[in-house]
Design brief:
mainly alpha; single chain; Growth Hormone, Chain: A
């Protein structure tokens, strides 16, 4: 990579969006919509798993066992995303970004809808894996396409907007949880049923998108088209260190997402349960059965608080994702990653240790800050990873780094579920996982700085 001749100088436009064409905005809009629905397909399970999984297990199954199966389903989703990121990332480098995006969106739409017809817990697990194949693949090709279409001076901003759009997908999942899953007349099956709708986006993609010029030129230059998107090339001299960097950075990000960030909604749920227990006069030594009876009596109200917690955490996360772009243009990629990982550690430990102690207003503000610092660095993956690779490996490399890390977090989720089933507290497990952010600080500091560079071919 070489210094960007188009990077703003005293005589060039200072605004990152100056000169951006209508087609470039269109690419960003379509890629973002694909990612929005991508995230919705993943998060709709998070919004409904406390209703879906118990209904698929034998009557009388305990909450701890239900949580274990939920973690298995989440683990299957992460593993599917890992395979999808590699398989469809390679396909995107070979047959093109737009065509591969269509395949991935059709895949995650179909299998999410099919989840509505699940009859037992393992149906959900298998279908979560298949949904994630498309989810992981869509991010890989969409992030590469945005990076290739926008000029270097706009890459951080456009990448942050692309990844930041994920908040809208989570909002859709929150809405599904609050108004569909929580409605006794509809329920969780309808929440998954609407997952078929994103398939309509593929018609627009095929009508409007063309392959990025950099990809077309690279394909014409290659003597062997099959050379594009070969997995072993990610570990070639000069590239292997970048693959290791991106992979380990994503491991930290995904492990802390599923082990820390995702529990923002559970803070609110646990506070609501505790408040209803106190109103009923239950003491700390009350039986599990007595507690569950109170929770069932106030089920819809508790669900509303849970979705409020998810909404506030998501709002903070969305602000963090959007902020990461300008911050990494200001500080550079490495320092931005370091800053957000330190913030994630501070807010993670603070909330897991004290979430029951705050008043409602301050607790809500802390959830927004918690979301901001624990999620914001994820926008950096859409900015940083495509900058590490040449065109022939960009989709595969980005997809491998971001999605293959899901294998390690899948194992972490199953272990975390097992520990909680064996009486390691929610608070202890979450605090322990928050310290993974420190590993992110070290990894980011060791990486190359790519601010102000052009994408290499």
């Amino acid at each position: 990579m070489t210094p960007d001749s188009r990077h703003p100088t005293p005589n060039s436009p200072a605004r990152w969006y100056s000169g951006i064409t209508g087609y470039q905005w269109l690419v960003l809009a379509i890629a973002s919509l694909g990612w929005i629905f991508d995230v919705f397909e993943g998060q709709v399970f998070v919004a409904s798993m406390n209703e879906a999984m118990p209904s698929l297990l034998p009557a009388g199954t305990g909450e701890a066992t239900s949580k274990l199966y939920n973690n298995i389903a989440l683990g299957a989703f992460l593993a599917g995303g890992a395979f999808g990121g590699v398989v469809f990332g390679a396909l995107g480098d070979r047959i093109g970004r737009a065509r591969t995006m269509v395949i991935t969106i059709l895949m995650y739409s179909f299998f999410t809808c099919l989840t509505a017809f699940s009859q037992t817990w393992w149906h959900v697990v298998v279908l979560r894996f298949l949904v994630a194949l498309g989810v992981g693949g869509e991010w890989a090709v969409a992030s590469a396409m945005v990076a290739e279409v926008f000029p270097p001076r706009a890459r951080a901003w456009s990448g942050a907007i692309f990844h930041g759009s994920s908040v809208l997908g989570t909002y859709l999942a929150v809405a599904a949880g609050a108004f569909i899953v929580n409605d006794p007349r509809l329920g969780w099956r309808w929440g998954f049923g609407i997952g078929a709708l994103p398939a309509l986006l593929t018609l627009w993609i095929r009508w409007q998108l063309r392959e990025p010029e950099t990809w077309v030129v690279d394909r014409q230059r290659q003597a062997e088209p099959a050379a594009a998107g070969r997995l072993l090339d990610l570990f070639a001299p000069g590239i292997a260190s970048k693959t290791l960097l991106g992979f380990t950075l994503a491991v930290v990000g995904l492990a802390t997402f599923w082990g820390v960030h995702i529990y923002g909604k559970d803070f609110a749920q646990r506070r609501a349960r505790h408040d209803f227990e106190l109103q009923a006069g239950l003491t700390d030594d009350a039986s599990s059965g007595a507690r569950q009876a109170i929770w069932k009596e106030h089920q819809q109200q508790i669900k509303s608080y849970e979705m409020q917690g998810m909404f506030l955490t998501t709002t903070g996360g969305g602000l963090g994702l959007l902020a990461f772009g300008p911050i990494c243009e200001w500080l550079g990629r490495r320092k931005a990653f370091v800053l957000f990982h330190l913030g994630g550690l501070a807010l993670g430990v603070l909330l897991f240790q004290t979430y029951q102690q705050w008043g409602s207003a301050l607790f809500g503000m802390l959830l927004v800050l918690f979301g901001f610092w624990t999620l914001g660095m994820h926008a950096g993956y859409a900015i940083y990873f495509p900058e590490l690779y040449p065109t022939r490996l960009r989709s595969l490399g980005s997809g491998f780094c971001f999605n293959f890390a899901r294998f390690t977090t899948a194992v972490m989720l199953v272990v975390n579920g097992y520990l909680q089933q064996h009486h390691v507290s929610f608070e202890t497990a979450g605090t322990f996982l928050s310290f993974l952010f420190l590993a992110g600080v070290v990894i980011a500091w060791l990486g190359p700085e790519t601010k102000g560079t052009t994408l290499s071919s």
